[in-house]
Amino acid sequence: MQSTAQTCIVCVLNKERGKDRKSSEMEKIEHTMVATNGINIHVASIGTGPVVLFLHGFPELWYSWRHQLLYLSSLGYRCIAPDLRGYGDTDAPPSPASYTAFHIVGDLVALLDQLGIEQVFLVGHDWGAMMAWYFCWFRPDRIKAVINLSVPFLPRNPALDFADGFGALFGNDYYFCRFQEPGEAEEDFACVDTAILMKKFFSIFGPNPLMIPKEVGVRGLATPDALPSWLSEEDINYYATKFKRTGFTGGLNYYRASHLNWELTAPWTGLQIKVPAKFIVGDQDIVYNIPGIKEYISDGGFKRDVPCLQDVVLMEGVFHFINQEKADEISAHIYEFINKF
């Protein structure tokens, strides 16, 4: 019979072996730079077979999909996760006007062309989900099916854009509104160590509205006493190292391009998305708890706008960074859906 000390030692050894195994698997992921659509795009990829294209959100990187890359590649899929424009090792044009949905979808179409890929299964989270919906809107011919996390399709409101809508709902301290002014959020973020800032971000997204009053900034956001079980210091360091080098302007420019997206997509007003779709969200997600979103998803509005929506999964007790928090379950959901096609 093992003593408590012996049991603890065994647990530590097993944990270390698990880390070593993960590191060994991560080393199988290939990293390449692809010059296309006027920028250089960093791409992480692994596996062979039908292609699954993963789009990350803010403040994330290709790395947010590490679990899904390993899982789905082991089941016979070619998994591709770029750092989107403005992030990580991909180029970051300085102007917010270079971050419209047309630029991002243009990058992705050009990337697929460069790689000789005709169609993909598309998976997105957060801003990546927004861009995935735009991709399905603009070029449905390139998408076999879409699985989006956290952010449902939000049809264009002819009366006002997202930033104005959020300002009306929550006031100008709401994070989406606070991120609008070029340079302001960057200056605020610079007052906090990047690793600590990443810990704050990964722990604060919902269910309550995220407010960042100007007078206190991100310093006023709580720093968690400990990391959640799904996130390690190694993970935090990876994100922090990349954002220390690049800064946050690229990612923030997605928020700042929202009004331009609204202006430019006027011709698509009322157009349905007719790509086979699955949607997954946690009931503690910041987006799910925006007034009106639950009703839109459950009362038929979402299905009206995305008529080929085949499945909606609501995960109880799960927050915003769902692809990392519930990695195995999300991977299994993706596989179950794309395996039908």
TrEMBL record:
<dbReference type="Pfam" id="PF00561">
    <property type="entry name" value="Abhydrolase_1"/>
</dbReference>
<comment type="similarity">
    <text>Belongs to the AB hydrolase superfamily. Epoxide hydrolase family.</text>
</comment>
<dbReference type="InterPro" id="IPR029058">
    <property type="entry name" value="AB_hydrolase_fold"/>
</dbReference>
<protein>
    <recommendedName>
        <fullName>soluble epoxide hydrolase</fullName>
        <ecNumber>3.3.2.10</ecNumber>
    </recommendedName>
</protein>
<comment type="subunit">
    <text>Homodimer.</text>
</comment>
<comment type="function">
    <text>Epoxide hydrolase involved in the biosynthesis of cucurbitacin and mogroside tetracyclic triterpene natural products (e.g. siamenoside I and mogrosides IV, V and VI). Cucurbitacins have cytotoxic properties and exhibit deterrent taste as a defense barrier against herbivores. Mogrosides are nonsugar highly oxygenated compounds used as high-intensity zero-calorie sweeteners; they also possess pharmacological properties such as regulating immunity, lowering blood sugar and lipid levels, protecting the liver, and acting as antioxidants and antitumor agents.</text>
</comment>
<comment type="pathway">
    <text>Secondary metabolite biosynthesis; terpenoid biosynthesis.</text>
</comment>
<feature type="domain" description="AB hydrolase-1">
    <location>
        <begin position="50"/>
        <end position="164"/>
    </location>
</feature>
<dbReference type="GO" id="GO:0016787">
    <property type="term" value="F:hydrolase activity"/>
</dbReference>
<keyword id="KW-0378">Hydrolase</keyword>
<dbReference type="InterPro" id="IPR000639">
    <property type="entry name" value="Epox_hydrolase-like"/>
</dbReference>
<dbReference type="InterPro" id="IPR000073">
    <property type="entry name" value="AB_hydrolase_1"/>
</dbReference>
<dbReference type="GO" id="GO:0004301">
    <property type="term" value="F:epoxide hydrolase activity"/>
</dbReference>
